[in-house]
Design brief:
Residues 360-517 form the Helicase C-terminal domain. A seven-stranded parallel sheet has the order 9-10-8-11-12-7-13. Strands 16-17-15-18-19-14-20 form a seven-stranded parallel sheet, with helices on both faces. It has helices at 117-121, 127-136, 143-153, 168-179, 196-209, 235-244, 254-262, 279-283, 288-296, 316-325, 360-371, 385-390, 395-406, 422-433, 467-474, 498-508, and strands at 3-9, 17-21, 28-32, 41-47, 81-84, 95-98, 158-161, 189-193, 226-229, 249-253, 273-277, 305-310, 334-337, 348-354, 375-379, 414-416, 438-442, 457-460, 487-493, 512-514. With 517 residues, it is an alpha/beta fold. The chain folds into three domains: 1-112, no CATH class; 113-310, P-loop containing nucleotide triphosphate hydrolases (Rossmann fold), CATH 3.40.50; 348-514, 3-Layer(aba) Sandwich (Rossmann fold). Helix 3 packs parallel to helix 4. 44% of the residues are buried.
Length: 517
């Protein structure tokens, strides 16, 4: 009907409860895992449209341990309201939450959405950080900030699962500034990123928020120091810094971080927050063993607040189960899944063009001349190891040479790929960011977290290897949260690749229009 009430009273249950709806079954599944916790008295009023089936995503996406996770199950989120009414005997706080958050842990006030970021952060984040945040231009909260910040400020471990460009970085940085104490000379927050480029970007935002407080007000705050411990950096200088006067926040890539940890140069004994950004990428990289060691050996989940962030977490139910089982997080880990119905930003227009592989260069030139994009990224797949050993010219180089020789308009093309050195990569990004109009040829190294908000067009010169790769490539455009500008993603494919693109469409739930030139 128009709503329902679930009573759970005085039975040995956990606070981890999930709801799911199977389209072909007229029933609702309630998963409850037994624990030794004293049972609270929960009342969960569920409101949903009376003329629709209540497609509810999990309050906390935690699978029944006796049931194998089903990757094909639909978990669809709508805004529904869940309120925990406490039993004073057990001291469970009253709470309310939107979407897929832990219903027993989220704080008061989320039913009424905050109009500004300041309202959300008041009482948690120092005022000088809030003033700096507003000066930069962060005033109105995005959906992931509306849903995620109350959960984070309550002290829960959390998985931030939201679209590209949705504001996850600012969300976890505000948490960092809410818990650190700049009067202490120790590393209190660690942010782990997959690439140097993303690390530089996160460091820049963190330092902007941590501007000298003496310039912003009368409060007696010591300035927060942020270290970028990234691949290609000067580790000798970082070693001296860490020993002399440890920074408050460290942004690190896995390889550089592990060097410092193994040599006992970096001490995580005082760490209060650990953030793993682009967590799915890191868990599928060659550095996964170091990451697991960081999560379990170098620090304990019980002594820190752990945050995982990504736009794509395949089989997220299973991942959350692993978080608890492997002790990467505490048992109360919350899953903030924003808009799971539409993983792709709605402002994107998707197109594809079918052409023989030997005509792709002419096809991309025709598309550029037709679209006349102000700023665009052309994505190319990384060169295979076999091609490298054979000495083949990379596709990126071939494409840049073709564009430069074919049209004066495209004579200035930047390159970003794994195989060029760190300084060249930094120079390419700097060149692109300083221009209002640019054309960047890149491999998937640019698809993870790199923020180029002026990008209006994405061209897949090579079809991505998976739907996750497509999602992150497409997410390099449409990165202005409150802009209505339409951005375009175009894939150049061979006829036999059409079914692959169709599979991406089904998985990511987007429509793709064919164009013929």
């Amino acid at each position: 009907g128009g709503g329902g009430v679930l009573f759970v009273s005085y039975i040995p249950i956990t606070s981890l409860i999930s709801f799911s709806w199977e389209p072909h079954e007229a029933r609702y599944l309630i998963s409850m895992a037994a624990t030794n916790l004293s049972p609270p008295h929960l009342v969960l009023p569920l409101s949903f449209p009376s003329n629709k089936n209540p497609n509810l995503s999990p309050l906390l996406s935690f699978p029944n341990p006796n049931r194998r996770p089903q990757s094909q199950r639909q978990f669809i989120s709508i805004n529904y309201f869940c309120t925990t009414i406490p039993n004073p005997k057990f001291g469970i706080p009253k709470s309310s939450s939107l979407s897929s958050c832990d219903a027993t842990k989220a704080p008061d006030g989320e039913l009424q959405k905050a109009a500004t970021l300041r309202e959300l952060c008041q009482g948690h984040v120092p005022d000088h950080v809030l003033r700096r945040m507003e000066e930069i231009g962060f005033v109105k909260p995005t959906e992931v900030q509306q849903q995620g910040l109350p959960v984070l400020f309550s002290g829960n471990d959390c998985v931030l699962h939201a679209q590209t460009g949705s504001g996850k970085t600012l969300t976890y940085l505000l948490l960092v500034y809410s818990v650190i104490n700049t009067q202490r000379s120790s590393v209190q927050a660690l942010i782990v990123v997959p690439t140097r480029e993303l690390g530089m970007q996160v460091t820049k935002v963190a330092r902007m928020l941590a501007a000298n407080p003496s310039e912003l007000g009368p409060e007696p705050y010591k300035s927060c120091t942020v270290m970028a411990l990234l691949d290609g950096g000067m580790l000798k200088r970082h070693k001296t810094w860490l020993k002399a006067d440890p920074p408050t926040v460290v942004v690190a890539t896995v390889a550089s971080l592990c060097q410092m940890l193994e040599k006992h140069i970096l001490d995580l004994g005082a760490m209060r927050v650990l953030v793993i950004d682009e967590v799915d990428f890191l868990f599928n990289s060659k550095q996964v063993s170091y990451l697991r060691k960081l999560l379990t050996s170098y620090s304990s989940s019980h002594s820190r607040q752990t945050v995982f962030a990504s736009a794509s977490i395949p089989q997220h139910n299973h991942f959350l189960y692993d978080c608890v089982q492997q002790k990467w997080t505490k048992n109360n880990v919350a899953h903030v899944h924003v808009n799971p119905v539409a993983p792709m930003p709605s402002c994107l227009h998707h197109r594809y063009m079918i052409c023989p592989r030997n005509q792709r260069y002419e096809a991309v030139l025709s598309l550029l001349q037709l679209d006349l994009p102000e700023s665009a990224i052309l994505f190319v797949n990384e060169q295979s190891e076999k091609a490298k050993k054979a000495g083949d010219i990379p596709t990126t180089s071939r494409l840049i040479d073709f564009l430069k020789s074919s049209s004066g308009k495209f004579s200035s093309v930047a390159l970003l790929e794994d195989d060029i050195n760190f300084n060249a990569r930094a120079a390419s990004l700097l060149e692109v960011r300083e221009k209002s109009s640019y054309l960047l040829v890149a491999t998937d190294i640019a698809a993870r977290g790199v923020d180029l908000p002026e990008t209006t067009h994405i061209y897949n010169f090579d079809l991505p290897r998976s739907a996750v790769h497509y999602l992150h490539r497409a997410g390099r455009t449409g990165r202005k949260p409150f802009s209505n500008d339409k951005c375009v993603v175009t894939s150049i494919i061979a006829r036999e690749e059409r079914f692959v693109l169709q599979r991406f469409q089904n998985e990511l739930k987007f429509y793709c229009e064919e164009i013929i030139l």
